[in-house]
Amino acid sequence: MSIDYESKLSDAVKVVPPSAIRRFFDLANEMKGEVISLSIGEPDFVTPWTIREAGINSLVDGYTHYSPNAGYIDSRRAITQYIERRYGISYRPKDECLITVGGSEGLDLAARALINPGDEVIIVEPCFVAYKATVLFARGIPKIISTKQENNFKLLPEELEDAITDKTKYLILGFPSNPTGAVMSREDLEKIKDVLLRYPDIIVLSDELYCELNYTGSNPVSLACFEEIRNRVIMINGFSKSYAMTGFRVGYVLGPKELIAPMTKIHQYCIMSSPSMSQFALIEAATNGDECIAEMREEYNHRRRVIVNGLKEAGLDCFTPYGAFYAFPSIKGLGMTSQQFCEKFLVEKHVAIVPGNAFGECGEGHVRISYAASMNDIVEAIRRLGEFVKEIKEGKYDA
Amino acid sequence: MLDRMELLRLVERDAKLNSKEIAVMLGASVEEVEKELDFLVKEKIILGAKTEINWEKTDLESVVAMIEVRITPIRNKGYNHIANLISKYDKVKACYLMSGGFDLMIIYEDKNLKAVSSFVSDRIAPLEGVLSTTTHFVLKKYKDNGILFEDSSNDDRQAIIL
């Protein structure tokens, strides 16, 4: 007798829809190897050797067991020292820091620790796909703010104020942004902080994964930098993007101990502890990795300028991204949806980029182009994009 | 504003870039880049541009030696006099003044061991002020000028990562 598996699933899982670009996903996977990929949200650099070596040495030395739930104290200390050096804010390694399995675990822990069914969580789209999913899994209600290109995809204080209700539990803010590349400056964040001061019950989840990939020349900045609200900011960060350590699966959350403790409780039952080897590698990264970051940032910055310049030459409207490793040009006016554009571009020109609607409905009309790829690939892909846009305008792909 | 150090790092890594490409990468105008490059060449900060070649993969027979030289500095001329003399030979690829147990390190390239040996015995050893030499032959190059000769890294990333 067959089982109706669907009926066995929890409502929370069922309520999360399949990715809006699943078909495109399948197609891109089928063509992998034949195409230039500007669709990858992870660094193309291999993790710097000294960091890999630190991980290897920990294995040689026999550190192959569980670590303390929150992570080795030396690893947590390396993290808090790094944060103090880069952001100028202090956290206690002992009870204000938890080492997680990547930044994504931090999003999930926060959702499960904070949300009661029916609580609202403000999400600023277009954004990383896990924000909405983690809220839905925890039976929260995502309250979406759609940022706009004319505002450089920044969150405006009035937009935040309009989205707040008496059910708002927390706000997730992820800048520099995946997928838009937008950044929020200290002045921009100050205005957000002023709104939050009027709503003292709202917690902030500040996703800082791309904090080091900021091309404005300023140091990383976060809502946690403002003393008045620091006691309700959970900073989520990790090593994946800044240090090209995606496969190490290691990140961390920092915040008031009253919030870190319940997150640690969930982590201890579900994960136990993050990989020991990765925790040793992160000590090297956080302690001696500033130079590696600077080198990679400079290389990304060159590629960023080449992409933005190429998009303009291709006749696409693109606001200038100042963070992460993405450009998010508009394809409005070309008579195609984001998905149609990306599918056609993939099939005709063998270049993979991602439809903007994968990152929220307001991403429709845009495409995400990652410059975590070699300069040669970027130059060639942009040349093909220019060709493709020209052909569309000439009517070659009219139905 | 053009960052001189950033420009130098860029052209050191890729000498094939033209002014327009450099200008785009640095967010500067072509004129600014060309003016700065001219200045850097004039000041001998940029000395030239070369292609990195793994000669071991060709049919060319050649030998690279590292020659340590101990010398007595010449009055009023220090080490420079001998170092400059040695550097004049085309096959001397590098010549460095060193701290430690010897004074000059010479990187020398020639067609075979015999040629290297004649260079050391006929050209270096007889120079006034040279006390002794020690010659080491390079057996295999793994990395040169920051470039790995056998880089096995490949892009194993997934097709799409959001």
Report a brief summary of the structure.
The complex is a heterodimer of chains A (399) and B (162). Chain A has 399 residues and is of the alpha/beta class. Chain A has helices spanning 5-8, 11-15, 22-30, 49-60, 73-87, 102-114, 130-137, 157-163, 186-197, 257-270, 276-288, 290-313, 338-349, 375-393; strands at residues 36-37, 97-100, 120-125, 141-146, 168-174, 203-207, 233-238, 251-254, 326-327, 351-352, 354-355, 367-370.
What does this structure look like?
The complex is a heterodimer of chains A (399) and B (162). Chain A has 14 helices and twelve strands. Chain A is an alpha/beta fold and 399 residues long. Chain A folds into two domains: 141 residues, Aspartate Aminotransferase, domain 1, CATH 3.90.1150; 240 residues, Type I PLP-dependent aspartate aminotransferase-like (Major domain) (Aspartate Aminotransferase, domain 2, 3-Layer(aba) Sandwich). In chain A, α7 links the parallel β3 and β4. In chain A, α5 runs parallel beside α11 and α6 packs across α10. The model of chain A has no long low-confidence stretch (mean pLDDT 95). By secondary structure, chain B is an alpha+beta fold. Chain B has two domains: 39 residues; 89 residues, Alpha-Beta Plaits (2-Layer Sandwich). Chain B is 31% helix and 21% strand. Chain B contains five helices and six strands. In chain B, the strands form two sheets. Chain B has a four-stranded antiparallel sheet with strand order 2-3-1-4. The radius of gyration of chain B is 21 Å and the shape is extended. Chains A and B meet through α3 and α12 of A and α1 and α2 of B.
